Amino acid sequence: MFKRLLILLATVFVVIGVATPVLALPPGPVGGLSASVDGTSITVTWTAPTDDGGSPVLNYTVVLNGPSGESTTVTNTAVTFTNLDPGDYTATVTPNNNDGPGQASTSNQVTVQPPVSVPSAPQNVSASVSGQSVTVSWDPPASNGGSAILDYT
What we know:
Blueprint: H1 2-19, E1 31-38, E2 41-47, E3 59-65, E4 70-74, E5 78-81, E6 87-97, E7 100-101, E8 105-106, E9 110-112, E10 123-130, E11 133-139
């Protein structure tokens, strides 16, 4: 009788276990999220969540927060945004699975600097001689190249 009851209980447990669906959840946050700047480009990298919620991560939504705000969806764990306007940026990465978006994570802040080039030549250059001295004068260049001119040589 005891063995029969035990077998009956085990059978009921197995049947209940098979009939009970396993629910997946949205994934947890990504790991190792980092943003880096190179000129007017920002590269965002991360690692997959340690908890996928019971369903594989399908893709990641990446939002670039800043003056040139953009967003994209990728399947890998890195993305580069190019030709960005100068300013401060962060990136928000959200993993997605069949059960919806997971927890969003925000990167460190990075700054895109305006491009700097060589200044144009000084304007209205003139020289005058007085005895053994020469005086040279000029007006500032039309373009400073994106950075203050500190001195002339």
